[in-house]
Amino acid sequence: MKILIHLIVSTIAILIATYIVPGVTIGLQSAIVLAVVLGIINIFIKPAVKLITLPLTILTLGLFSLVINALFIILASHIVPGFVVAGFWTACLFSIVLSLINAFFGLFQD
What we know:
Helix content: over 70%
Mean pLDDT: 95
Largest sheet: 2 strands, antiparallel
């Protein structure tokens, strides 16, 4: 049940972030698929990439994490049909807005 609630919350967060950030387009079905794809990326790929890029992340005082998140958004846009991101900076802004919205929704979850 928790997974289903997390999927719904992530989908809503994606739709809100898409509305806020210009240059990102997505439909409802694609938002559901994107929530699943981003969850899979965050579980399997992100820890390895974070570990590999740890020295660069420390050197940039954590700012390189924004680059990693933007690259994962671009990767997801290539995987999910119907999800279009205009460019790198749009993906970076989208990832920041999505993180803020998810953090806000996280305040209300158990």
